[in-house]
Amino acid sequence: MIMDILTLFPAMFDGPLSESILKRAQERELLTVRRHDIRAYAPDKHHTTDDTPYGGGGGMVMMAGPLVAAIEDVRGADTSAPVILLTPQGRVFTQRVAAELAAHDRLILVCGRYEGVDERVRQAVVTDEISIGDYVLTGGELAAMIIVDAVARLIPGVLGARWGAEEDSHAMGLLEYPHYTRPPVFRGMAVPDVLLSGDHGAIARWRRREAIRRTWQRRPDMLLAADLSEDERWFLAELAEGDARAHE
Question: Is 193 inside any structural domain?
Answer without folding.
Answer: yes
